[in-house]
Design goal:
This protein is α/β, with parallel strands linked by helices. The chain is built from nine helices and seven strands. The longest helix has 20 residues.
Length: about 240
Protein backbone atom coordinates (compact mmCIF):
# COMPACT_ATOMS: atom_id res chain seq x y z
CA UNK A 1 0.00 0.00 0.00
CA UNK A 2 1.47 3.40 -0.93
CA UNK A 3 2.24 5.80 1.88
CA UNK A 4 0.65 9.22 2.23
CA UNK A 5 3.82 10.66 0.74
CA UNK A 6 2.95 8.95 -2.52
CA UNK A 7 -0.15 11.12 -2.95
CA UNK A 8 -0.53 14.89 -3.29
CA UNK A 9 -1.61 16.27 0.06
CA UNK A 10 -5.02 17.87 0.34
CA UNK A 11 -4.88 21.55 1.11
CA UNK A 12 -5.86 21.13 4.76
CA UNK A 13 -5.02 23.58 7.53
CA UNK A 14 -4.40 26.47 5.12
CA UNK A 15 -5.02 30.00 6.32
CA UNK A 16 -4.50 33.50 4.88
CA UNK A 17 -1.15 33.61 6.70
CA UNK A 18 -0.12 30.05 5.67
CA UNK A 19 -1.90 29.46 2.35
CA UNK A 20 0.28 26.49 1.31
CA UNK A 21 -0.21 24.45 4.48
CA UNK A 22 -0.72 20.79 3.64
CA UNK A 23 1.39 20.93 0.47
CA UNK A 24 4.79 19.35 -0.12
CA UNK A 25 7.20 21.15 -2.45
CA UNK A 26 10.09 19.35 -4.15
CA UNK A 27 12.66 21.87 -5.34
CA UNK A 28 15.19 20.50 -7.83
CA UNK A 29 17.98 23.03 -7.64
CA UNK A 30 21.77 22.73 -7.56
CA UNK A 31 22.36 26.12 -5.90
CA UNK A 32 22.27 26.08 -2.12
CA UNK A 33 21.56 29.82 -2.07
CA UNK A 34 18.55 29.53 -4.39
CA UNK A 35 17.33 26.46 -2.48
CA UNK A 36 17.57 28.35 0.79
CA UNK A 37 15.38 31.11 -0.65
CA UNK A 38 12.71 28.55 -1.60
CA UNK A 39 13.02 26.93 1.83
CA UNK A 40 12.27 30.26 3.52
CA UNK A 41 9.35 30.92 1.18
CA UNK A 42 7.89 27.49 1.93
CA UNK A 43 8.41 27.94 5.66
CA UNK A 44 6.57 31.27 5.66
CA UNK A 45 3.79 29.78 3.50
CA UNK A 46 3.23 26.66 5.58
CA UNK A 47 4.47 24.16 2.99
CA UNK A 48 6.83 21.26 3.58
CA UNK A 49 9.93 21.19 1.38
CA UNK A 50 12.29 18.57 0.03
CA UNK A 51 15.33 19.25 -2.13
CA UNK A 52 17.17 17.39 -4.89
CA UNK A 53 20.34 18.85 -6.39
CA UNK A 54 20.36 16.88 -9.64
CA UNK A 55 18.09 14.99 -12.02
CA UNK A 56 19.31 11.69 -10.60
CA UNK A 57 18.50 12.74 -7.04
CA UNK A 58 15.10 14.06 -8.16
CA UNK A 59 14.19 10.75 -9.75
CA UNK A 60 15.12 8.95 -6.53
CA UNK A 61 12.80 11.27 -4.57
CA UNK A 62 9.97 10.86 -7.06
CA UNK A 63 10.23 7.08 -6.98
CA UNK A 64 9.37 7.16 -3.27
CA UNK A 65 6.76 9.88 -2.91
CA UNK A 66 4.63 12.26 -4.93
CA UNK A 67 4.82 15.94 -3.96
CA UNK A 68 2.10 18.51 -4.56
CA UNK A 69 4.46 20.99 -6.24
CA UNK A 70 7.68 20.46 -8.18
CA UNK A 71 10.03 23.37 -8.93
CA UNK A 72 12.61 22.41 -11.55
CA UNK A 73 15.75 24.41 -12.30
CA UNK A 74 16.38 24.28 -16.04
CA UNK A 75 20.17 24.01 -15.74
CA UNK A 76 21.29 21.04 -13.65
CA UNK A 77 24.69 19.34 -13.37
CA UNK A 78 23.54 16.12 -15.04
CA UNK A 79 21.25 17.48 -17.75
CA UNK A 80 18.40 19.77 -18.64
CA UNK A 81 15.43 20.25 -16.36
CA UNK A 82 13.28 20.29 -19.50
CA UNK A 83 13.57 16.52 -19.77
CA UNK A 84 12.22 16.02 -16.27
CA UNK A 85 9.40 18.53 -16.81
CA UNK A 86 8.40 16.66 -19.96
CA UNK A 87 8.31 13.36 -18.08
CA UNK A 88 6.35 14.78 -15.16
CA UNK A 89 3.84 16.53 -17.40
CA UNK A 90 3.12 13.29 -19.24
CA UNK A 91 2.80 11.11 -16.14
CA UNK A 92 -0.49 9.81 -14.78
CA UNK A 93 -1.52 10.72 -12.17
CA UNK A 94 0.03 14.12 -12.79
CA UNK A 95 1.66 16.27 -10.11
CA UNK A 96 -0.73 19.22 -9.63
CA UNK A 97 1.83 22.03 -10.01
CA UNK A 98 5.00 21.89 -12.14
CA UNK A 99 7.06 25.09 -12.18
CA UNK A 100 10.27 25.84 -14.09
CA UNK A 101 12.89 28.21 -12.72
CA UNK A 102 15.88 29.93 -14.28
CA UNK A 103 17.67 33.24 -14.30
CA UNK A 104 17.41 33.26 -18.10
CA UNK A 105 13.83 33.96 -19.16
CA UNK A 106 14.70 33.05 -22.76
CA UNK A 107 14.39 29.42 -21.63
CA UNK A 108 10.81 29.76 -20.44
CA UNK A 109 9.03 29.20 -23.78
CA UNK A 110 10.74 25.81 -24.00
CA UNK A 111 9.64 25.07 -20.43
CA UNK A 112 6.02 25.82 -21.30
CA UNK A 113 6.32 23.65 -24.40
CA UNK A 114 7.66 20.81 -22.23
CA UNK A 115 4.57 21.02 -20.03
CA UNK A 116 5.43 23.40 -17.17
CA UNK A 117 2.38 25.06 -15.63
CA UNK A 118 4.28 28.23 -14.81
CA UNK A 119 7.71 29.76 -14.30
CA UNK A 120 9.68 31.45 -11.53
CA UNK A 121 12.39 33.85 -12.64
CA UNK A 122 15.43 34.06 -10.38
CA UNK A 123 15.98 35.56 -7.94
CA UNK A 124 13.03 33.88 -6.23
CA UNK A 125 12.55 36.13 -3.22
CA UNK A 126 9.03 37.63 -3.22
CA UNK A 127 6.64 35.79 -0.92
CA UNK A 128 3.62 37.13 -2.81
CA UNK A 129 4.95 36.01 -6.21
CA UNK A 130 5.90 32.58 -4.89
CA UNK A 131 2.51 31.96 -3.28
CA UNK A 132 0.58 33.21 -6.31
CA UNK A 133 2.66 31.03 -8.65
CA UNK A 134 1.48 27.94 -6.77
CA UNK A 135 -2.06 28.94 -5.78
CA UNK A 136 -3.05 30.17 -9.23
CA UNK A 137 -2.37 26.68 -10.62
CA UNK A 138 -3.69 24.43 -7.87
CA UNK A 139 -6.89 22.56 -8.79
CA UNK A 140 -10.07 23.90 -7.13
CA UNK A 141 -10.29 21.08 -4.60
CA UNK A 142 -6.86 22.01 -3.23
CA UNK A 143 -7.42 25.75 -3.05
CA UNK A 144 -7.60 27.29 0.44
CA UNK A 145 -10.96 28.72 1.42
CA UNK A 146 -11.54 32.42 1.95
CA UNK A 147 -9.67 35.53 0.91
CA UNK A 148 -5.97 35.37 0.17
CA UNK A 149 -3.55 37.70 1.93
CA UNK A 150 -0.98 39.42 -0.29
CA UNK A 151 2.29 39.58 1.67
CA UNK A 152 4.95 42.16 0.88
CA UNK A 153 7.86 40.24 2.39
CA UNK A 154 11.11 39.59 0.53
CA UNK A 155 13.22 36.71 1.82
CA UNK A 156 16.98 37.01 2.25
CA UNK A 157 18.86 33.68 2.33
CA UNK A 158 21.83 33.11 4.63
CA UNK A 159 25.03 34.47 3.01
CA UNK A 160 26.78 31.26 4.05
CA UNK A 161 24.77 29.45 1.36
CA UNK A 162 26.09 31.92 -1.24
CA UNK A 163 29.63 31.32 -0.02
CA UNK A 164 29.10 27.56 -0.30
CA UNK A 165 27.96 27.96 -3.92
CA UNK A 166 31.03 30.07 -4.72
CA UNK A 167 33.32 27.51 -3.12
CA UNK A 168 31.62 24.80 -5.18
CA UNK A 169 32.24 26.69 -8.43
CA UNK A 170 35.85 27.42 -7.48
CA UNK A 171 36.40 23.71 -6.87
CA UNK A 172 34.82 22.82 -10.23
CA UNK A 173 36.97 25.33 -12.11
CA UNK A 174 40.17 24.18 -10.41
CA UNK A 175 39.45 20.51 -10.97
CA UNK A 176 38.43 20.37 -14.63
CA UNK A 177 38.76 22.30 -17.87
CA UNK A 178 36.57 20.21 -20.20
CA UNK A 179 33.99 22.09 -22.24
CA UNK A 180 30.86 20.75 -20.56
CA UNK A 181 32.17 21.50 -17.07
CA UNK A 182 33.20 25.05 -17.98
CA UNK A 183 29.83 25.77 -19.58
CA UNK A 184 27.97 24.41 -16.57
CA UNK A 185 30.14 26.41 -14.15
CA UNK A 186 29.64 29.66 -16.06
CA UNK A 187 25.85 29.31 -16.21
CA UNK A 188 25.62 28.12 -12.59
CA UNK A 189 27.70 31.04 -11.36
CA UNK A 190 25.70 33.58 -13.37
CA UNK A 191 22.49 32.29 -11.80
CA UNK A 192 23.91 32.27 -8.28
CA UNK A 193 25.30 35.80 -8.65
CA UNK A 194 21.95 37.02 -10.00
CA UNK A 195 20.12 35.52 -7.02
CA UNK A 196 22.59 37.21 -4.65
CA UNK A 197 22.43 40.55 -6.54
CA UNK A 198 26.18 40.44 -7.16
CA UNK A 199 26.15 42.40 -10.43
CA UNK A 200 29.88 42.35 -11.13
CA UNK A 201 30.14 38.59 -10.72
CA UNK A 202 26.98 38.00 -12.73
CA UNK A 203 28.23 40.10 -15.65
CA UNK A 204 31.63 38.39 -15.63
CA UNK A 205 30.06 34.91 -15.59
CA UNK A 206 27.60 35.83 -18.35
CA UNK A 207 30.42 37.19 -20.51
CA UNK A 208 32.38 33.96 -20.01
CA UNK A 209 29.30 31.95 -21.03
CA UNK A 210 28.79 34.13 -24.14
CA UNK A 211 32.42 33.88 -25.23
CA UNK A 212 32.28 30.12 -24.96
CA UNK A 213 28.97 29.91 -26.80
CA UNK A 214 30.40 31.99 -29.66
CA UNK A 215 33.58 29.90 -29.81
CA UNK A 216 35.79 32.87 -28.96
CA UNK A 217 38.90 33.04 -26.82
CA UNK A 218 37.82 33.07 -23.18
CA UNK A 219 41.05 32.90 -21.18
CA UNK A 220 40.84 36.51 -20.00
CA UNK A 221 37.20 36.11 -19.01
CA UNK A 222 37.89 32.88 -17.13
CA UNK A 223 40.73 34.58 -15.26
CA UNK A 224 38.43 37.48 -14.31
CA UNK A 225 35.76 35.11 -13.02
CA UNK A 226 38.37 33.18 -11.02
CA UNK A 227 39.70 36.43 -9.55
CA UNK A 228 36.24 37.65 -8.51
CA UNK A 229 35.47 34.27 -6.98
CA UNK A 230 38.69 34.27 -4.97
CA UNK A 231 38.10 37.83 -3.83
CA UNK A 232 34.68 36.93 -2.41
CA UNK A 233 35.94 33.73 -0.81
CA UNK A 234 38.83 35.58 0.81
CA UNK A 235 36.51 38.24 2.20
CA UNK A 236 34.24 35.61 3.68
CA UNK A 237 37.19 33.78 5.23
CA UNK A 238 38.36 37.00 6.86
CA UNK A 239 35.04 37.58 8.66
Amino acid sequence: MPSMLDRPAHHSGASPERPLAGLTVLVIEDSRFASEAVRLLCLKSGARIRRADSLQAARRHLSVYRPSVVIVDLGLPDGSGLDLIRNLAGASPRIPVILATSGDDRLFPAAHDAGADGVLCKPIESLAVFQASVLDILPPEQQPAGLRAVPSEIVVPDPIAFHDDLAHVAEILSGSDDDRTLDYAAHFLAGVARSAHDDALEQAAERLARQRALGRSFGTDLARVAGLLQDRLDKRAAI
